[in-house]
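Quick illustration, no need to memorize.
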Amino acid sequence: MGNYERLIKIAFDKISGEILNADEIFYNKKDAFLIRRQFHEDKVELYCCECEQRLHVSTSKHDRLHFKHQPKADFCILKDGNLSPQEVDQHNKILVAKESERHKKLKNKIASLLQNVKGVDNASISIDNKVIIKNNERRRPDVYCKYLDKELVFEIQLSDLSLRYILSRYDFYRQNKMFLIWILDNFDVHKQAQLERDIKYLTKYENFFNLDENTKEFSLNCTYKFPFLTDDNSLLTKWLNKSIPFHELKFDSECYQIYYYNFGDNKTLKEKEQWQNAKQIKEVEKIKIEEDRLSAAKYKSKRIIQEIKILRERKSQYFGDVILFLSELNEFEKDVFNSMLNIKSNLKSKTPALNQWIKTATQEDIAFIDFVLNCNEIDIDVNERDFEGKTAFQEIYLNKSIGKYLPIKGLLKRGYQLITEDEALAVSIPDLSGENNNDLILYKLCMSLSDKSMIDIAYKYSKLLFIIESAKHATIMGFSYKPNEWIAFANNAIQHYSKHWEYIEIAFKSSGLWKILIQLDGKGTFKKKITQFYLDMPEQEYDFEGVFRDLYPELAFSR
């Protein structure tokens, strides 16, 4: 809006060829009005150093003289740019710097070197006299030329620039598709002033240029930021400098800036590389953690296996400490332990380890076999057969040197399933007591349990199970009574299993045996025992409840 145009301090007199500084020529009021008189006598011809439009000497009501644009002048940042007094002052310093010997030297050298650049139209090269007018805006670059199909403008900066000034140049040339090349001087990348920072962040490239004055061909010293990864995968940047021949410069047709090194894109690539490295490092660390974890698990497993081996060789009857060690293993350690234990079929004999242990065992080895079968942390297939088809169950029956009670119970706890050959072998062995059949009944009942942890209870109350099974199948099982001795069978049940009578009674009544007993009780012995039982009824025990519910749900839920 021109509020600060009175602060314009620099004007160019085309007649004398001099730069006039308002602070100097208007300091003395007498001298000031002399200049004003000369202006009106056409002895001075004043132009704006920024836009090269005519200026005149204007006065204020306090007789303060200043330079001012003509009333109908086109746009000029000093006239219409809404600049603050500080920005106008800074701009005036820039205009003064443009007339310095250093500024002139750089302009002339750039123009001279451009003449030898292949692709540059020499006739187009202009030094400070090319006024570019677009949409009533004017810019006068320090150096202008055409290169191939491009228009290039060089702006040499020897002093600080305001961001407004930088953006006005940047936007003007970009909108008019001209490549703006900022040429800095006395530049220290490690002590960047606001000017350098403002220019740096105009684009993603973050390249600084100054003229390489040590070459005979046109080259620019490019100071550019280079991203790199350290040995510990940290992303850092450093400033590098290189003299760049003109043909190595790159042109960005979106922002109309030149660059040599694309910092933004390369930084993105390094960030991706950093991410990939971090991922690989994480994977390596993960592998290392897994290796350490595996190594620790193997070490722990080796010690436990060695302890088991020692106890077995010593025919130890106590494996409690080993069981405690195994119970403290996590799932990963258990897998490693079983992998190292490797209880599988022997590759030469095709005999499972368990079968071989049982086959060669003496009674002193039963504690070891019982430990293996009852330790849930040890992964073993109790149903595996040897190359002849023999099962671990059969080896127990065939080995006369060991008792079958503990190993058979251990097999059943591990989910052993009887096969036809097992049953045939069990009943073929001479058995005067008839217990072989009873054992098979118990084994099958244990196999039917959904919760194998209750097998110990089933073994403990095997006779109670035989009573219930006898009622259920209407055949006396597990006792030496003759098939028709039901009253004796029932009287024995009420006398010796009175604390679990509740289970027996429901089995008798549900199966219909109760009515049969009443009919068969000619002497009334059963009725007397029942009457006496209810008079002196002992407190009932329910430690059998779980087995009862598991095997006989139809009876358990009919109460």
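Residues 100-261 form a domain with the Restriction Endonuclease fold (CATH 3.40.91).
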